[in-house]
Amino acid sequence: MQYQMLRLSQRFSRYMSNTVESLSNEQIQDLLRCKKLRHYDLEKVVEAKRAIEIRRDFLLKSPTNTNCAIDHVSDEFYETAKGTCCENIVGFMPLPLGVAGPILVNGELYNIPIATTEGALVASLSRGCRAVRESGGVKCVSTYFGMTRAPLLKFSSVRAARAAVQWLENTENFPKLTDVFDCTSRYAKLQSLVPKQAGNLVFLRVVAHTGEAMGMNMISKGCEKLVEYLKTEINEFQEMRMLSLSGNFCVDKKPSAQNWINNRGYNVTCDVIIPAEVLTSVLKTSAPLMAELNHDKNLVGSSLAGCIGGNNAHSVNIVSGVYVATGQDVAQAGTSSMALVTMETVDKDSLYVSVTMPCIEVGVVGGGTNLPQQRNALEIIAPDVKAELLAQVVCGAVLAGELSLLAAMTSGDLVKSHISLNRKK
């Protein structure tokens, strides 16, 4: 019966495609207006570029249109985005792409692609990269990798929830769950399960390795299979309901103490010692001034503001610029940019600088990394860049960006630089 229904559905889809394709653009727009056809289904019945033309014309004729034409929206690369990155596509929005650096990380030079509309950012980052290069480069290490997802499970009582938690905490059961989770992907590897009980609710924080992908879809698929197994095969979970595949205990796209302490994605830390001559010649500042400002601004100021992971001057500037350029999930820039910056005077007049970022969520396959411009931006960093290297370059770039911005603040050059580089003449 299911096979027959599938065949009928396929025949209907082919019929719709052949029928709609023969209509004029105006007739197809009539179908959109009367809800006989949905915008996101257009590519199923007409070729991609024609779908864009129909949507654009429909938008211009819409009563909600503000008489704003979209003539400057690019009309390229539809096929690469279709069904992957966006729905209801009307075009591509170009952004300025700058290249900062190169930065010296673990003895190798890397250029840093930055997509931004903030004048002075790329210039400032490049100055920080120069200071790092002339100081021998940053030493960078990755101490952790694991993507997370936390299904929200509901039980009939606190005792039922407690019994389920105890079953999950029994290490003898973990191999069974690993087999179930790992079979959902060639790359997904379950690392740990951390249950957290609140009344009759259990938040199950699942941690997995996801290869070279950032891995949210991969781990979500594995979590679905895992919960299904628990529900059908384990007595303690028979009456459980999964309220949501994500219970906000992951934590995804929200700065949190959870990720700050327990990590998500890559935990990367790097450091460098900037000699006095580099501080003077490149950054126009001194070690005592930098150390004082970093302490009072990034540590005291951020603490007074109640920031979580905000012990930095502007790490999100660098993270979001790299993320947009390289096809990362830009909504994760807020969490990935959580960073702790430390500075102290060493050897009388040199400056020790470190940056620790416990939640760099990046990948080099899947999602926006498949788009041609974003793929090219990844290759600007390295021809066959890996996710861990990308995370380390991001961390090193944040250090360089912190150096340059704080130096500009100590020398009083911040406003002058922005007026010079961020104002249309």
What features would you describe in this structure?
The protein has 425 residues and is α+β, with helices and mostly antiparallel strands. The chain has helices at 2-21, 25-33, 42-45, 48-61, 78-81, 121-133, 158-169, 174-182, 216-233, 257-262, 276-281, 287-304, 315-326, 333-336, 372-381, 387-411, 414-421; strands spanning 97-105, 108-115, 139-149, 152-154, 189-198, 201-209, 241-244, 265-274, 310-311, 339-346, 350-360. Mean pLDDT is 90; it is low at 1-15.
**Average of pLDDT:** 90
The proportion of residues in beta strands is 15-25%
The outline comes out as globular
What is the count of DSSP helices, taking H or I runs of 4+ residues? Answer: 17
Order of helices and strands: HHHHHEEHEEHHEEHEHEHHEHHEEHHH
Report low-confidence residues grouped into runs of 5 or more. Answer: 1-15
Biggest sheet architecture: 9 strands, mixed
- What percent of residues adopt helix (DSSP H or I)? 40-55%
| Strand segment count | 11
Computed structural class: alpha+beta
Radius of gyration: 26 Å
Q: Terminal Cα separation, in Å?
A: 70 Å
